[in-house]
Records
---
Amino acid sequence: MTIGDGASPPKLLSDGRNSELASSDGLGGTEPNPGPGPRYIYYRLYAQDGPIKSNNPIYSNNAFISRVMPRSVAPPHTAASLKKHLCKVEGFSAAPESCALYLSLSEKVPVDGAARLSFRGDLGPGSSSLDPLALVVGSQESGKRSPASNKTGALDQWVGDQVQTRFVHYRVYDESGEVTSKTSFDKDDTSLGRINILSVSPPHTVASLKACIAKAEGMTDHDLQTFEDDMGEIIMKDDDTITIITDVYPGILQDAPIAIVFGSKKATRVDRAFTKRIQIIYPSGTWASPDPKWHSMKDKEILQTDGALRSELYTYKCYMAINSEGKKALVAECEVLSARHVGV
């Protein structure tokens, strides 16, 4: 889609940059536009429910795209070595095997870690910001991340939005009828919402689309059904593939949105092994843990555990436990009443 502002469109390089601007290396410096030979590897980051901002943005108006130089990746250039490097520069401590790398946004299957990748010339994976690689990290890993470093210097503007901003349109309901969408863009039709197609995490299935919409609507804790249109005659199955990086996909038209029906809250799933109850003893009231591996303290809160004591980094013993919000983390033995003393 071209923005009709009356100005001549900028000359775009294959990576979506304005050819008249200097380029950033994604780590705070600038380099001349790359010539023949090794080039940049462009990528986007995703959790399973949507995009993640890069710690090393290269554009002032799009924080979700970044790039690295091929020479920064340790030989041999395999998918595994690239994943290790991307996790490092983006502040993820996750093991590469816990992440999935897709050679383009439209790929349905992640590339095998042992696969050799070529980054020479203008072709190949990640050669353009308009067709980047996608690194998908697990939900637990996405919350464990080193902070971004402070960078200096001006960034380019990504003008790719002028040629490929497209949306999935959807109408939102609960069990009693239509409700206002949090992504509503039409004041006369507030149940109609939309998300950018680039917000949906690979692989592009109904499940990943539902996860992205549920996050956008703040309803991740609710069950939902998805229908191909607002007539509701065809239910979309979670494992169905959707080709949203094309000119034909469900919800491409504002007048033909898919339908999202939110049901009741999801039942809290309790690990079958975590059947023993313990109670936190913290007379001060509450304490916020700075380490996501450990539970915060809330006096008299009931947790469920498997009853097995363990040692984790520290000398005192602890339990792995699930709190009232469903979070699984560690709690020190000295801070709880044991299962036999909890009369609940």
---
Amino acid sequence: TTDKRNFDHVIWNRTGQLFIRPFGSEIDRSIKATSEVHINNIQQITSENNMLFHKSVITMISDNGSDWNTDCTANIYKLGRFWEEQRLNPLIWVSYVPGHSRFNPIERMFLRLTDLLQGVIIDLDTSFKDTSQKLDMALIDLCKYWNNKIYCNYKINSRPMFSVNANIFEGHEELKNLLMNKSQVPI
């Protein structure tokens, strides 16, 4: 099909679940939302659910924010590495243009998730001295409110991303700086 501007649209069935991996970047400054974090989550989700045994295509919808910027060489490199290591046929990475994020199913899902938290108070466990440990326990409680709920016939799979995480893709800032320096070398 085509739209009013005569752009082709490819339509295919959406399958699977909605996966949420909350983490605490605002409290623990050592954790940032980077493509490294997101790709580690995607790696974990696909391996936990044996997704790639049955599928050879992954379509990802991002908001093109700073952690998903399609112009960032480090992001492109990491997604290319993920594509290669997972032996995918295509890895489709799309984002909505500015002002159209309201069409993004993930953005719309967060309205439902927010509704599920109405009146909820999550206490920080004071038995832990380290803020990141307190946050990890709060994330476990948070995920209890979201996990296995339904949104638009999709089952929500919500698990916390803990402050100590075994990452396959590490060193986002170092890689980004290396690639940025290499891109400025005259050829």
